[in-house]
Amino acid sequence: MKRILPALVLAAAVLLSGCGQDDETPWTRDPTSPAPPSATASPAPAATELADRYRKAGGDTDVYGIRHAKNKDGSLVLTVWTRKMTGYEPFDDFATNLASFLAAEGVRLDQGYVLNVYGPDGTRLHNYDTTPENNS
Asked: What is the pTM of this model?
């Protein structure tokens, strides 16, 4: 009995210490996660390659990552990583250009999308929601 009690306490401490830990990177977690990309992380290779094509097609040269994924509700979530510190003005021009490029790439935008743009330090610069649920 004397050996079991310390072992149980140790096991409980180990199990409880893991609660609430989030070891996923922003690129593997749910795309609707409110957590912004970390300042030290970089976009996944597919997001970097898509941004390369965007820049070659005449898109903003500061964009270095673009990811598109459906969230658990089926809404399209676009994530953009940029080197800009203060965002895009006028934002509508940037969003329209990006949407046109993605549509040409075969991304379906007809049901709307949520666009999050993050600066180099992980700060969210823009959050733009065109989904029908939020634009009725």
From this structure: 0.71
